[in-house]
Amino acid sequence: MRPLKVAGPVGSCHGLMRPLKVAGPVGSCHGLMRPLKVAGPVGSCHGLMRPLKVAGPVGSCHGLMGPLKVAGPIGSCHGLMRPLKVAGPVGSCHGLMGPLKVAGPVGSCHGLMEPLKVAGPVGSCHGLMRPLKVAGPVGSCHGLMRPLKVAGPVGSCHGLMRPLKVAGPVGSCHGLMRPLKVAGPVGSCHGLMGPLKVAGPVGSCLLCLMGNPGLASADIGNHQADRYFVTFAYS
């Protein structure tokens, strides 16, 4: 529907709705709704809704709704709704709703609703609804509704509804409805409705509901859907 402007070779681009501007080669780009601007090669980009700006190579980017700005290579980025700004390589980013800003490499980020700001590498982040700010690497973060601020690496965080602030590494955090503030590593935290502040490691926290601000900071064990099996403090 619009011009396709490329500085290098392009493999296949179908249903381009806006110009595709690339400084390097592109493998396949389908349904581009906005310009694709890339300084390096691109593997496949489908359904781009906004420009894709990349300083390095890109593997695959599908359904980009906003610009993808990357200083390093990107593996795959699907459904980007806002710009993806990365200083290092990115593996896969799906459904990004807001910019992804990363100083290190990113593995996969899906459903980002707001910017993802990371100082280290990120493995996978799905459904991020707010910025993801991390000083270390992140494994996977799904459904983040608020920023994820981490001083260390994070394994996987799903459905975060509020910021995740961690001084150490985090294994997996799902459905966090409030910030997760931890001084040590966290194994898995699911469905947290209120902030989780822990001075030590956390094993698993699932479906922790909001309320009871008097709970004290402590390690977290198992859970049941309708009650706390942990003691942690709210801010």
In short:
With 235 residues, this protein is mainly beta. It is built from no helices and 25 strands.
Note down, in words, how this protein is organized.
With 235 residues, the protein is an all-beta fold. The protein has a domain of 151 residues. 0% of the residues lie in helices and 43% in strands. The protein is built from no helices and 25 strands. The protein has a 13-stranded parallel β-sheet, with no helix packed on it. It has a twelve-stranded parallel β-sheet with strand order 2-4-6-8-10-12-14-16-18-20-22-24, with no helix packed on it. The chain is elongated. The N and C termini lie far apart (51 Å). The N terminus and C terminus are likely disordered.
SSE layout:
Elements (H helix, E strand, L loop, with lengths): L9 E5 L5 E3 L3 E5 L5 E3 L3 E5 L5 E3 L3 E5 L5 E3 L3 E5 L5 E3 L3 E5 L5 E3 L3 E5 L5 E3 L3 E5 L5 E3 L3 E5 L5 E3 L3 E5 L5 E3 L3 E5 L5 E3 L3 E5 L5 E3 L3 E5 L29
Parallel strand pairs: 1-3, 2-4, 3-5, 4-6, 5-7, 6-8, 7-9, 8-10, 9-11, 10-12, 11-13, 12-14, 13-15, 14-16, 15-17, 16-18, 17-19, 18-20, 19-21, 20-22, 21-23, 22-24, 23-25
The SSE order reads EEEEEEEEEEEEEEEEEEEEEEEEE
Name the shape in a single word: elongated
Q: Reading side by side through the largest sheet, how are the strands ordered? A: 1-3-5-7-9-11-13-15-17-19-21-23-25
What is the residue-averaged pLDDT? Answer: 38
Q: In terms of structural class, how would the helical and strand content be classed?
A: mainly beta
Instruction: Outline the biggest β-sheet.
Output: 13 strands, parallel
Query: What does the oligomeric state look like here?
Result: single chain
Beta strand count: 25
Give the low-confidence spans. 1-235
What gyration radius follows from the Cα positions, in whole Å? 19 Å
